[in-house]
């Protein structure tokens, strides 16, 4: 699993690489919204190398991600993609702290991936394991509204290096390099709240 990111490696370990729910009619009337990260500036001749960030400069994944206003609705494609990004941003926090509260609140009853991550986090806690690093940077997001309360979001992100360590600080599993990952997320708006009903992450590229 060392050649993959924690997100895709754990997905393979639990054999849940397919979304947990149907995506609606084969040819629905949809409204889509897309967000992309800004294009990087053109490189100038002889650029000054930028040093890699020190661990202290990296985001602290033990701090819970800020819940977006999109969680309160309305049910539209813009908010669906924001909720999908927020849900996946919880992943490193869950494994760094063992706190699955926010993850479980968004997890729908049909999402096997969601339940498996909760179980894996609990298993890590029972062994005294936790994750270090692995913060996520989003690079793309889009979503479709199927006009029946269900949505499909596609998000892309860079998953940064992480390690699983035990209570003595010894490395149990290493996930080196930056992993370019895409995830298809199935969402539902029901009774005034969002539910994630499926997640399908795919490793696109690994950057050493």
Produce the secondary structure layout.
Layout: H1 6-13, E1 31-36, H2 77-97, H3 101-106, H4 112-127, E2 130-133, E3 136-145, E4 150-159, E5 162-165, E6 171-175, E7 178-190, E8 193-207
Antiparallel strand pairs: 1-3, 2-5, 3-4, 4-7, 5-6, 7-8
Concise summary:
This protein has 208 residues and is α+β, with helices and mostly antiparallel strands.
How would you describe the overall organization of this protein?
Residues 1-21 form the signal peptide. This is DUF6318 domain-containing protein. This protein is of the alpha+beta class. It has one domain: Nuclear Transport Factor 2, Chain: A (Roll). It is built from four helices and eight strands, in the order H-E-H-H-H-E-E-E-E-E-E-E. The protein has helices at 6-13, 77-97, 101-106, 112-127; strands at residues 31-36, 130-133, 136-145, 150-159, 162-165, 171-175, 178-190, 193-207. The strands form two sheets. Strands 1-3-4-7-8 form a five-stranded antiparallel β-sheet. A hairpin with a 2-residue loop joins strand 7 (178-190) and strand 8 (193-207). The longest helix has 21 residues, at 77-97. The protein is globular, with a radius of gyration of 18 Å. The two termini are 15 Å apart. Mean pLDDT is 84; it is low at 14-31 and 36-56.
Look at the structure and give the CATH class: Alpha Beta
Number of discrete domains: 1
Tell me about the biggest sheet?
A: 5 strands, antiparallel
User: Biggest sheet: strands side by side, in what order?
Assistant: 1-3-4-7-8
Fraction of residues in helix: 10-25%
């Amino acid at each position: 699993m060392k050649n993959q990111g924690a997100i895709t490696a754990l997905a393979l370990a639990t054999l849940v690489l397919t979304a947990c729910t149907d995506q609606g009619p084969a040819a629905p009337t949809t409204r889509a919204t897309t967000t992309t990260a800004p294009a990087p500036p053109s490189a100038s001749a002889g650029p000054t190398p930028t040093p890699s960030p020190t661990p202290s400069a990296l985001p602290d994944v033990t701090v819970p991600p800020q819940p977006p206003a999109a969680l309160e609705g309305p049910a539209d494609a813009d908010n669906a993609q924001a909720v999908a990004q927020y849900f996946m941003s919880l992943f490193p926090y869950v494994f760094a702290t063992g706190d699955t509260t926010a993850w479980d609140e968004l997890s729908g009853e049909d999402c096997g991936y969601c339940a498996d991550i909760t179980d894996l986090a609990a298993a890590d806690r029972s062994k005294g394991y936790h994750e270090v690093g692995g913060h996520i940077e989003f690079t793309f997001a889009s979503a479709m509204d199927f006009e029946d309360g269900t949505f499909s979001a596609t998000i892309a992100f860079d998953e940064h290096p992480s390690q699983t360590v035990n209570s003595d600080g010894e490395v149990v599993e290493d996930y080196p390099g930056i992993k370019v990952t895409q995830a298809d997320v199935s969402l539902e708006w029901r009774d005034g709240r969002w539910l994630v009903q499926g997640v399908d992450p795919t490793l696109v590229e690994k950057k050493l």
